[in-house]
Design brief:
alpha+beta; Diaminopimelate Epimerase, Chain A, domain 1; 2 domains; eight-stranded mixed beta barrel
Length: 302
């Protein structure tokens, strides 16, 4: 089976995209995601995203992490979906509604070249209720977990002092769960070990995305992300949106900020504590054909 694909990224958060308007989508995308996202034996990426026709919007997005698990939402991914449907003629440039696990989101697509768009996303209202994030503090009934320390949640070590870690947790959902911690130096955080430990902690029954944030000014932050099911990524759009919310609640940042991520910058705004808006790039890298067989698959860029 030959499967045409497009490799795209949003601020370095890269996925393999399948255009369901043009091809028959695979029956087992979870299994395909593991193989196609492999950075040594596959195309490579943070996961697989399917773009499907729908009666509710211009297109529907389904997202699968690199470990095959399906996620509700991806902010960088949905920007790339909007670029794809516009660039392939499935929708007109301008306002493009996309159906996601978070519901139908409205995006503004402005094409800068045939392979690059700048896209603004209405990410919806943040969810702070602990039961809906979901997050819990063992032995305690809480309405929210914002600025609360959970004993044993963050692995100990000398790195905490080196990073200037504030061990308090800010738990925010943007349709998917996020655990946010502020510190003085994100570079000093051993994210490769701390990230998975927090992701799988019993306080998060659906696991969680993990972000460490360094305040540079009231209008700018630097962040590093460990994404649930994918590991360390270059950027996380829903995570940056959650960080914008957490910064305001913590009294550290303004309602409009720029987030510096390893893969680039995202612009966030929490408008009057209602919806969060995110603006950033969506860029095509290359097209190719994945050859799917019982023995495995390989990619053949064209």
């Amino acid at each position: 089976m030959r499967i045409p694909f497009v490799k795209m990224h949003g601020a370095g958060n890269d996925y393999v995209y399948l255009d369901g308007f043009a091809i028959a989508l695979p029956p087992d995308p979870s299994r395909l995601a593991v193989r196609i996202a492999d950075r040594h034996r596959g195309v490579g990426g943070d996961g697989l995203i399917l773009v499907e026709p729908t009666s509710r919007a211009a297109a529907r997005m389904r997202m699968f992490n690199a470990d095959g698990s399906e996620a509700e939402m991806c902010g960088n991914g949905v920007r790339c979906v909007a670029h794809l449907v516009v660039s392939r003629g499935h929708a007109a440039e301008g306002t493009v509604p996309i159906e996601t696990g978070r519901g139908v989101l409205s995006l503004e697509v402005h094409r800068e070249s045939p392979t690059l768009s700048r896209v603004k996303v209405a990410m919806g209202r943040p969810i702070l209720e602990a039961a809906e994030v979901p997050v819990s503090i063992p032995g305690e009934a809480v309405a929210t977990v914002v600025g609360r320390e959970i004993p044993g949640l963050v692995p100990g070590g000398d790195w905490q002092q080196a990073a200037g870690l504030d061990p308090r947790l800010w738990a925010v959902s943007m349709g998917n769960p996020h655990a946010i911690f502020f510190c003085l130096d994100v570079a000093a955080v051993p994210l490769e070990t701390v990230g998975p430990a927090i992701e799988t902690h019993p306080a998060f029954p659906q696991r969680t995305n993990v972000h460490f944030v360094q305040r540079l000014s009231r209008e700018r932050v630097r962040m590093r992300s460990w994404e649930r099911g994918s590991g360390i990524t270059q950027a996380c759009g829903t995570g940056a949106s959650a960080v914008c919310v957490a910064g305001v609640l913590a009294g550290l940042t303004a309602e409009a900020i720029t987030a510096e991520l390893p893969g680039g910058e995202l612009v966030l705004e929490w408008v009057e504590r209602g919806e969060v808006f995110m603006t950033g790039p969506a860029e095509e890298v290359f097209e190719g054909v994945w050859i799917e067989s019982d023995a495995g698959g390989k990619e053949s860029p064209t």
